[in-house]
Amino acid sequence: MKYLKQFGIILVLSFIGELLNHVLPLPVPSSIYGIILMFICLKTGLIPLEEVDETGRFLIEIMPLMFIPAAVGLLEAWNIIQSVWLQYLAVTAVSTVFVMAIAGRTTQYMIRRTSPQQSATELDHPEEEPAEGDCGYGIF
């Protein structure tokens, strides 16, 4: 019953995100509205983390399964994309590297911002290895 309640909370916020997508004239996907709503509810304490933690972890664990329908769709559309698959591959590679670089820089910025006692040199070149299970930055 606990998991149904947690899943219900996530579904309600997703549904509200769908409604916002239809009401607001912004080019924002409904899933982004749902994530923002979840973030706001968690940060304000409106929804305690314990109310959605276990189901959220489960959904993250099974996330790779959610990509199977997209892969099947690509296979079904092979006759359409066959002539431009190299361009798709190039765009995918470039955008993946771009997203990884931006995510890495953002993470470095956030670590530096939350750990002002450590200099940039210490973050880029730590002198000692962190203990097992410790990232070495003191924020996890």
From TrEMBL:
Pfam family, one: LrgA
Keyword Cytoplasm included in the entry's annotation: no
Stretches for region Disordered: 116-140
Protein location: Cell membrane
Coiled coil region boundaries: none
Residues annotated as transmembrane: 7-24, 30-46, 58-78, 84-103
Keywords: Cell membrane, Membrane, Transmembrane, Transmembrane helix
KW S-adenosyl-L-methionine (keyword) present: no
Any Gene Ontology CC annotation: plasma membrane
Membrane topology: Multi-pass membrane protein
Protein name, UniProt field: CidA/LrgA family protein
Organism of origin: Dorea formicigenerans
Organism lineage string: Bacteria, Bacillati, Bacillota, Clostridia, Lachnospirales
